[in-house]
Design a protein that fits this description.
The chain is of the alpha/beta class. The chain is built from twelve helices and 14 strands. Helix 3 crosses helix 4, helix 3 packs parallel to helix 6 and helix 5 runs parallel beside helix 7. The N terminus is likely disordered.
């Protein structure tokens, strides 16, 4: 909203925007707080690209203008001014990173960051005067591009059924009213309007269990039980068959690599298995054969949800549960216990250093598993915050 107001102000000459944060005194504070925020929301690389591009383009622009005027460019002066006496730091850390205006995929976010960086840094000369779009209009153009990346036909989900794959896992099956585009491993944001919502509001994110090929059927799942019951959870339970709920977004970069030869390790902690079910169903539907090992950590054997889907995929599954499952398919192995250490993981997956690891589950469990996965070629995580 601030971006739109300041942009309109400049376009219609109603005044000029004044960025109080663009001062040498507040610059270090904005930078420090910005890094903390960006690290928390995992957007540091995206905004860092914006900063680098904006500064680089600004220097190039100065060099071009100076050479045309027969002068030597004062590069350090430009860098100093851009960093500490302009809204560049605030623009990236607190406005470009706004989740509601960012596109859903990482490559799209990087594209928008680079475009806005170019628009902010470049000021071509018209006659004898450099003309710049200004930070607000540059960001507004970036938001428009982000919107085009994320634009989707409004979709409502019609509830079909509710099931209980395990004692603590609940699965909801919906029917989409219109085409819905998503990649296996992504999540949807679902809105459940209700009276007196709690502090988190009426929207929550859910990983999609079904594959894109399953549409118009769409399945989500979540863990139920334990802790206080949120207003959202109560409202969701009250949605009757035939009731409709709006999808307010499809997001996430938790997707498998395009390289079909890449060896993959999937590590699911509890309900974190849901995006992997979607991915494996997608691979089966498309006939895409990959070298995949799934490590499934659950409190006990009865909590191994979606076994039918996992067995149908044919991938090797290593189960870590307190008790040994009574019947296991030929491709499944019981590793014992519910805690994975580095030695145990390497024993079950000896080629760990050749695999790209994908870890999904509660944030605390992901943190516990991180040391055991240090030898993997790469680690991609998907933390569940609950609903």
């Amino acid at each position: 909203m601030l971006t739109l107001i300041t942009a309109i102000t400049g376009v219609f000459a109603l005044g000029t925007s004044w960025w109080w944060v663009g001062t040498p005194i507040l610059g270090p504070v904005v930078l420090l707080l910005g890094i903390v925020v960006l690290w928390r929301i995992e957007k540091l690389r995206v905004v860092a690209l914006f900063w680098v591009v904006a500064l680089a383009v600004g220097v190039v622009n100065l060099s071009v203008q100076s050479s045309l005027n027969g002068q030597a460019p004062d590069v350090w002066s430009v860098l100093w001014t851009q960093l500490w006496s302009s809204p560049l730091l605030f623009l990236g850390a607190f406005m470009l990173s706004e989740p509601l205006t960012m596109p859903p995929r990482r490559w799209q976010q990087l594209t928008v960051a680079a475009i806005v960086g170019v628009l902010v840094g470049w000021a071509p000369a018209i006659g004898a005067f450099p003309v710049s779009l200004g930070q607000e209009r540059a960001l507004l153009i970036g938001n428009l591009i982000a919107f085009l990346f994320a634009v989707r036909t409004a979709v409502r989900l019609v509830r079909v059924s509710r099931a209980a794959p395990t004692a603590t896992v609940r699965e909801l099956t919906f029917r989409t009213t219109r085409p819905l585009a998503f990649a296996a491993g992504q999540y949807i944001e679902l809105e459940v309007p209700h009276r007196r919502p709690d502090a988190r509001g009426t929207r929550r994110e859910f990983s999609i269990v079904s594959a894109p090929e399953d549409l118009p059927t769409l399945r989500i799942a979540f863990r139920e039980g334990g802790g206080a019951v949120s207003s959202f959870k109560k409202a969701l339970a009250e949605v009757e068959p035939g009731g409709t709920l709006p999808v307010t977004g499809v997001w996430g970069d938790f997707v498998l690599p395009r390289d079909r030869s890449a060896k993959i390790l999937l590590v699911a902690a509890g309900i974190g298995v849901t995006p992997f079910v979607s991915q494996l169903r997608h691979l089966s539907a498309t006939g895409d054969v990959r070298d995949i090992v799934l490590v499934y950590v659950a409190s006990d054997a009865s909590e191994l949800a979606f076994r039918v889907d996992l067995e149908a995929s044919g991938v090797r599954v290593v189960a870590f549960t307190r008790d040994e499952p009574a019947i296991l398919p030929s491709t499944w192995t019981w590793a014992g216990g519910t805690r994975i250490d580095a030695a145990g993981l390497h024993r079950e997956v000896p080629d760990l250093d050749q695999r790209h690891a994908y870890v999904s589950g509660p944030a605390g469990l992901i943190a516990d598993l991180a040391p055991a996965l240090e030898k993997a070629r790469s680690i991609t995580t998907d933390a569940f915050s609950g609903y």
